Amino acid sequence: FLPHLVASLEQVEQTYIMVKPDGVQRGLVGEIISRFERKGFKLTGLKLFQCPKELAEEHCKDLKTKSFYPTLIDYITSGPVVCMVWEGVGVVASARKLIGSTNPLQAEPGTIRGDLAVQTGRNVVHGSDSPENGKRETALWFKEGELCEWTPAQAPWLME
Ligand code: UDP
Ligand code: MG
Question: What range does the record give for the signal peptide (predicted)?
Fold first, then answer.
């Protein structure tokens, strides 16, 4: 069934997307989920979660030497976040484009940060920067039983 879709399975990537505490507090959760949903990617994990400090530190470990690291950890743990995994061919790079540049003032209009934020330290959303980190971050934030494999009804209308 749908052999053309199965053929591209090895190209399917996962990306870890997170609405940061400012996005949750500002009531932007639906808006942000909507953008990935409307694009046509597949949601395979979703939860509201209060991130413990140790997890924030593990997630941000590559930024440990940066001056903004302590405030970044405070920010990420300052309230609930919405954790998501989205799947699809090319989803990692495409999600980064949908999110926009790190500094929201430089992010293009039409992107999440370009439309909804003004400051790097309050840039409302996270997205994995490579397929490898997509897998790493998915495994870090979700237990296996929390992810859902399913075939959206719209699949044959998204890919020929
Ligand atoms: N960040 C910050 N100040 C900076 C750079 C980054 O507060 O000068 C924060 C910001 O929340 C950013 C996060 O650290 O989203 C991770 O930085 P990265 O360079 O990975 O940016 P991203 O991949 O989120 O665009
Ligand atoms: Mg990053």
Answer: none
**φ and ψ at 84, to 5 degrees?**
-140, 150
Interface confidence (ipTM) of the complex: 0.99
Catalytic residue among 111, 112, 126, 138: 126
Q: What's the half-sphere exposure (Cβ side, CA atoms, 13 Å) at 89?
A: 11
Q: How far is CA 98 from the centre of its chain?
A: 10
Is residue 126 annotated as part of the catalytic site, yes or no?
yes
Residue 102: phi, psi to the nearest 5?
A: -55, -45
Q: Indicate which residue's Cα is closest to atom 19 of ligand 1.
A: 102
Mutate to test the pocket of ligand 1, among 20, 102, 128 (most ligand atoms within 8 A of CB): 102
Token pair 């530190």 is at which residue?
Answer: 57
Question: Exposed, middle or buried by CB within 10 Å (0-12, 13-18, 19+), for 108?
Answer: exposed
Tens digit of pLDDT per residue, the chain (160 long)?
Answer: 555 555 477 899 999 999 999 999 999 999 999 999 999 999 999 999 999 999 999 999 999 999 999 999 999 999 999 999 999 999 999 999 999 999 999 999 999 999 999 999 999 999 999 999 999 999 999 998 999 999 999 999 999 9
User: What's the pTM value of the predicted model, to 2 decimals?
Assistant: 0.95
